[in-house]
Amino acid sequence: MGRVSDARERLIAATIELIWLESYGAVTVDAICERANVKKGSFYHFFSSKDELVIESLEAHWQLRRAVLDTLFSPTVEPLDRLRTYFEHVYQRQLELKAKHGRFLGCFYSSVGVECAKQNPEIRLKVQEIMTRYMRYYESSLRDAQAAGLLPFGSVTAKANGVFAYMEGVLGQARIQNDPELLKDLGNAALRMIGAVEPVRKAG
After folding, report:
1. Residue 182, C-beta contacts closer than 8 angstroms, at least 6 positions apart
2. CA gap 140, 146 in Å, rounded
């Protein structure tokens, strides 16, 4: 089984990878244990069910993302540049994922949330919670941009919701078409959509 001390972390890492590559329904506890090189009995030492593991995996994945987001959305960066840099990061990250796995993976949270929306309410609620955390980064940047006169007045929350929904939609289309190039101009398009008045600089 390897070192007991890291078995839990290996189960979480295996869950994220397998579910993102396949789907929640297609991935079994046995498959997770095999990928993590952890015996099934040890699985139930750490988690009472697959759903509990998935919820923990969602949180673990978020904690990794949060460190990146804290840097990308630093208040020391100009507010619209935070968003531009973030969307460029999304594009580059998806290119890396496709290079590693051979196909486009899209958004981990959306993939899990859509599949589990009806049958697994606790997982759905966890995904909603994490997406709300994401929204706070958007809202902070847009609020600062509006205060600086870079956006027309209006509901910052509504603008953040619109940008987030747009990004998730493009991510979904890119996954369906297996084409991350759909994300190449995502940042500029999102800023145009919310009426950014500062001239948008073309990435690259």
Report:
1. 170, 173, 174
2. 10
Dihedral angle of Cα 113, 75, 95, 91, to the nearest 10 degrees: 80
DSSP state of 201: P
Helices (H), the chain: 7-21, 29-36, 40-46, 50-72, 79-101, 108-116, 121-147, 156-177, 186-193
Max CA separation in the chain (angstroms)? 59
Domains, the chain, ordered by start: 1-47 (1.10.10.60), 50-193 (1.10.357.10)
- CA pair distance 89, 160, nearest whole angstrom: 18
At residue 23, φ and ψ (nearest 5 deg) are -170, 165
Do 96 and 88 meet the contact criterion of CB atoms below 8 Å apart? Answer: no
Sign of dihedral through CA atoms 91, 97, 101, 105? negative
For the stretch 145-191, pLDDT in tens is 999 999 988 899 999 999 999 999 999 998 899 888 888 888 889 99
Neighbours of 143 (CB within 10 A): 16
pTM (predicted TM-score): 0.88
